Structure formats: structure tokens, C-alpha cells
Fold:
Amino acid sequence: MLSKKLEKALNDQIQIEAESSQVYLSMASWAEVKGLEGIAGFMYGHSDEERMHMLKLVKYVNERGGHAKISTLKAPKTDFVSFQKMFEELYQHEIFVSNSINDLVHVTLEEKDYATHNFLQWYVAEQLEEEALARTVLDKINLIGNDKGGLYLFDRDVQQITVESAASNTAGE
Ligand code: OFO
Structure:
């Protein structure tokens, strides 16, 4: 049985994952409207992944005798100065999510809930991957600068990054 404190902390994380899904969905829609199909595909795919992160937590809380509460979500930003800035915001967002997972893991230790501690290791590993992915993308963007041909190739390549990360996620499960 989850302690009340841990149940509340897990519910907070459920909200953060749901908001992450909305953040990526909003980025996907912005990119699609700008004609950046590859980037849009990357963001749509990532939005689905975030929903999966959220669902996994919902199921876990309910299985452990808690109640996963579905709450209202903060509206994501809908406009971005440029795709470069959008990816920088994505990276900062993932750092924020990693910090919140770390805080959650800390609560499991305080509450001596080793089952939840173990369950959350998947999220710890996932955050490492997500931060690495975001950094890889930012490195590529820095290489392009303002070159239009580079942007064309990036928009094409970023879909490969989606496919690769999806493949390694599946292999890791
Ligand atoms: Fe759920 O990992 Fe990104 O935010």
C-alpha cells in the first residue's frame, strides 16, 4: 500500500507526464503548420511516448492500492520563435522532468517504499535517454546554423532519430 505522501507525489508526476505530452503535441502542431514535417513527426511520436509514461504511472498507483487522479493540465505554449528555440525549450523541459523524477525517487527512500523505488528506475533510465536525445538534436541544430539546405536535411534526419529511439525503447522493455 502506498503512503499518502508517496501517492500524492506520484499523482503530481502523472500530471507532469500528461503536461509533457501536451507540450510535445503543441510543438508538433506548430512544426506541422510551418511545413516542417519531419520535426512534426518527431514531436507527435514523442507526445505519444509521454502519454505512455503517464499511463504507466496511473496503472502503478492503482495497482498499489492508491487512486491515480486525473487533473486539469497547464496549457502549453503554442508559438515558438524558431525551431531552434523550440528544441532548446524541449531540452530545458526534459531537465525539469528529470529533476522531478529525482525528487520522486527521493520520496520513495524517505517512505522506505523499495518497490516504488525499483519501479521508478525505468523512469530514471528513460530520462537519461531523453536528455541525451535532446542534446544530440541540439548539436545537429548548432551545426546547421542558418543554412536552408541543412534545415532540409535536419527535417529529414530528425525522423530517423525518432525511429532509432523508438527501436531502442522497445528493445529495452
Ligand atoms: Fe516522460 O519523459 Fe520526457 O518528459
Observations:
- The chain has five helices and no strands.
